[in-house]
Design goal:
Blueprint: H1 2-15, E1 60-68, H2 72-81, H3 87-94, H4 100-119, E2 128-146, E3 152-168, H5 183-195
Antiparallel strand pairs: 1-3, 2-3
Helix pairs in contact: 3-4
């Protein structure tokens, strides 16, 4: 038996037999073309000088963390949690969230806070609140999972992006009701939207 096994091994080495199934780890080069660019462009926008009687425009800073190995659906719940909070309160709340995504969100907010002080002339780093916080879909890498009876299934490795905008000043009392409308105003706005509808390719 040992001689037969040795002969089979020598035949295999001489023929350079290789498996058709690719089992080596996947390596992908993250290029700049795959990353979101539009959100950070708001930091470069230059506003005209304000008038004396004009309401002061608060300073803000936009920041993002890209290609997080985390589902964007799971990250959305953490992003919604900190909306409308001050930076100190958001960092305090995130320290008690036992989720991997909370660490990414916390690091992004700290980076944005540092950028606001060093590059955007914000005097006090604690005088900031979270005006925007949301997640986006990143790269999706498809893999293969083996099933019974020689069948294969698809597995997806999801990546996500996180975006945050810090604004100088105090947060509103109710973030989701900053400009409340009366029922009559809501009805009028809905009727106006319905009347503006147009059938495509019609006169």
């Amino acid at each position: 038996m040992t001689n037969i096994f040795r002969n089979l091994l020598s035949i295999g080495h001489s023929c350079n037999l290789k498996s058709n199934l690719h089992t080596s780890p996947l390596h992908f080069a993250w290029t700049k073309s795959n990353l979101p660019k539009r959100f950070l462009e708001y930091n470069k926008k230059i506003y005209p000088p304000q008038e004396i009687d004009e309401e002061p425009r608060p300073a803000f800073v936009c920041h993002q963390k890209t290609n997080i190995k985390y589902s964007p659906e799971k990250l959305w719940y953490i992003a919604v949690l900190v909306r409308g909070m001050t930076v100190d309160e958001a960092l305090k709340q995130l320290s008690f969230v036992n989720k991997k995504g909370a660490g990414y969100v916390k690091d992004t907010i700290l980076e944005a806070q540092n950028l606001a002080v060093t590059e955007h002339n914000v005097e006090f780093k604690s005088n900031l609140w979270i005006a925007e916080s949301f997640s986006g879909k990143g790269m999706v890498i498809k893999g293969v999972r083996r099933h019974a009876r020689g069948r294969l299934g698809e597995v997806r490795y999801q990546y996500s992006h996180y975006f945050v905008r810090l604004e100088e000043g105090k947060p509103p009392k109710d973030y989701y009701k900053q400009n409340p409308l009366t029922p009559q105003q809501q009805l009028d706005r809905w009727l106006e939207q319905m009347r503006k509808r147009k059938i495509i390719n019609s006169y």
